[in-house]
Design brief:
Layout lengths: L2 E5 L4 H12 L5 E4 L10 H4 L9 E4 L2 E4 L1 H11 L11 H14 L3 H18 L6 H23 L12 H14 L16 H14 L1 H12 L10 H15 L1
Parallel strand pairs: 1-2
Antiparallel strand pairs: 1-3, 3-4
Helix pairs in contact: 1-3, 1-7, 1-9, 4-7, 5-6, 5-7, 8-9
């Protein structure tokens, strides 16, 4: 059995892995795990990942979880261009720096914005107070300013002159909350208000390729036709996990 990737492209980290594997012509079998149907909570998927989360990787008898670990594994196993995760010590450290920072900052705040602005009120029927929503969006705005000032600065990409894993991990988070006019996107219009970030987004899309970029994000751009949490049992199972992620 070859490489298997267990993904749902509704998930930001899953999209980063999907783009990376496709862009670098890494052969893999896509095993779709539909989050909104609760498939990640099944006993069958627990045999792959006992944590019951996507993404997950199987490479023969070897299994791996956590998106950053999977991305690093793929860079080390396959012959991919050096710019993704440079051999140069300091250039690599810049990528590592962003990957370490984003977990509890950009990722957390993007998730909070998405769930507080859209997912709770629209799909779960759980109201969010205007005060909580305002605080969430203000916190995201501070984080975006740090992303620009500390990481992007005046560079073409987050870690230097070329696209890296840092950019893939960042862009998939930001696309989720900026998908304006779509129920699953928070519609924060973060690129419209930040020309430097908007220019970086265009460079990332060009480096990835417009076709692949759109393919990976199609599920969130067309989510109004596909997203449903009609099954109360799935909602009941998902809620504690969601609350744990965004608190």
């Amino acid at each position: 059995m070859g490489l298997e990737l267990y993904l749902d492209l509704l998930s930001q980290p899953c999209r980063a892995i999907y783009i990376f594997a496709k862009k670098n012509s890494i052969p893999f079998e896509l095993r779709t795990v539909e989050l909104l149907k609760g498939q990640h909570l099944s006993d069958a998927f627990a045999q792959v990942n006992p944590l019951k989360m996507v993404p997950a990787l199987k490479d023969g008898d070897f299994t791996l979880t956590e998106s950053v670990a999977i991305l690093l594994y793929l860079t080390r196993k396959y012959q991919v261009p050096d710019h993704w995760y440079p051999q140069d010590l300091q250039a690599r450290a810049r990528v590592d720096e962003y990957l370490a920072w984003q977990h509890v900052t950009l990722r957390r705040n993007c998730l909070r914005a998405l769930w507080h602005k859209v997912m709770f009120p629209v799909f779960l029927g759980e109201p969010v107070s205007p005060e909580v929503l305002a605080a969430t969006l203000a916190e995201l705005d501070v984080t975006l300013q740090i992303l620009e000032d500390k990481f992007l600065q005046n560079k073409a990409f987050l870690a230097g002159p070329h696209i890296s894993l840092a950019d893939l991990v960042a862009i998939t988070e930001l696309m989720h909350v900026s998908a304006a006019h779509k129920p699953v996107g928070a519609g924060c219009q973060i690129f419209e208000g930040r020309p430097k970030l908007a220019a970086w987004r265009q460079r990332v899309e060009a480096a990835v390729g417009a076709v692949l970029f759109q393919e990976a994000h199609e599920v969130i751009l067309k989510a109004k036709d596909t997203v449903s949490l009609a099954d109360p049992s799935v909602k009941q199972k998902l809620m504690p996990r969601v609350l744990a992620m965004i608190r």
